Amino acid sequence: MNDTATPPLSELLHETFDSLDRTLSRYRAAPQCLEIGSVGQVANGIARVTGFSDANDNELIAFPDGLFGIAANLNLDHLGIILLGESGGLKSGDEARRTHRVVDVPVGEELLGRTVDALGRALDGRGSIRAEVRWPIERPAPPIMARAPVAQPLQTGIKAVDATIPIGRGQRELILGDRQTGKTAIAVDAILNQDPGMVRIYCAIGQRGAAVARVIDALKIYGAMENCIVVVAAGEDPPGLQFIAPYAATSMAEYFMERGRDVLIVFDDLTRHARAYRELSLLLRRPPGREAYPGDIFYIHSRLLERATHLRDDRGGGSLTALPIIETQAQNISAYIPTNLISITDGQIYLSPELFQKGQLPAIDIGKSVSRVGGKAQLPAFRAVAGDLRLAYAQFEELETFARFGTRLDEETRRSLERGRRVREILKQDEHDGFSVAEQAVVLLATTHGLLDAVPVERVADAQADLRRVFLDEQPRLCERIAAGQALGDEDRETILDVARRTLERHRG
Fold first, then answer.
1. Out of 147, 261, 303, 372, which one is annotated catalytic?
2. What are 69-113's pLDDT values in tens digits?
3. 188 and 252 in contact (C-beta within 8 Å)?
4. 372 catalytic, yes or no?
5. String of b and e for 212-250 (b: at least 16 CB within 10 Å)?
6. CATH topology of domain 384-507
7. Which fold does the domain 106-377 belong to in CATH?
8. What gap in Å lies between CA 313 and CA 146, rounded to an integer?
9. CA 23 to each of CA 10, 16, 17, 191, 431: distance values in angstroms, whole numbers, following the listed order
């Protein structure tokens, strides 16, 4: 028999209520104001919401099931919302709430080596990204007084670019051309050629999944992925995600730039970005303009690319170099979107489908390409070697066109044509075969001094490969000095030419 006495019911109730009182006394009810609206209509990537008495432009609006949208049209009777996700589960009558904040994305070291979507969510299956800092995707461009001149080169490893269309850190250089002319290949080669200390961001907008996968594989194979961020808004994603993707990628890049680091960002491509914004604008019933694009199509790209710059030393000295890509139709570089971006950027690299079909790869049309920074972004040694190459090549192309008429040519013209053909062979380059500054310098110096004139055109590629190998083996200190930015003296030039003469002697016809 159990001798333990059971407490009276009144005592148990008293203890229970005392415990509840102590628990409730630690909490204080705080008034909370929620502004809730109602979904009136859902279209392809667009929702119309009613019931808000107040809202801000670009404010984030929350919907059921974790779906968000951006307030784009602020009308008196409704809001036009750009949805940032699949809208299949959203229906008329669903609840919408104001968040009183704008769209932001995670930034920081945690993103390096990762593949994310336009909202910073992981796509690589390696778990969620736990970043401590989040930045809005729309940030003001650095003021003019915070910017420094573009003077430090960004070496792409591509001879045709580094010699004739040099790019500086902090520059905005447009890459444009028709479909399947190698635009992405040039941008990826530029990413692969950077030193490990540079942060690289590849932003894919409206691309096929297979094309993005090939880029990611190349980054992994050549060891660049650990210092790279891949931001993907694929072609099957909603247009809202495609629209915000380049702004989100730029905020991720600015985090590193403002901490004194150099960043390279590739937008592939802004043609699809413009089309996504046109689709959204037409669904929002905004007035269409030329080619049905809205009137602010220039502004959406200018406010994006103006964020690329080189900061002054007292602001950290970091830089953000942008390589936007544009697709042209039938070589029409005077179309609406291409001319907009040509006027915004600091130069363009034009890829010709005719050169591509002839096997001149990379298919860069040097005559139509330009860098408005020019030789200021080249190393001294490189500037001395490649200074006259662009003009000489342009003259060769004119002579070659003239020679097709069958006119009898004098000996000097024939020599110019023979040298020009070898320059054209030298400018050919395989994909992912980056040349160092020293390798480019020795090859171009040998070419401009006529040391390749006696080498048959079909053997120029082998002679070039042999020259690269011998020079790197015999002159490692000179290679280091050239890469460090030291100017070439007369003795250095003679050393290079002596190595070239001895090496190329074996390849003469």
1. 372
2. 999 988 888 999 999 998 888 999 999 999 989 999 999 999 999
3. no
4. yes
5. beebbebbeeeebbebbbbbbbbeebbbbbbbbbbbbbb
6. Lysin (1.20.150)
7. Rossmann fold (3.40.50)
8. 9
9. 20, 11, 10, 59, 69
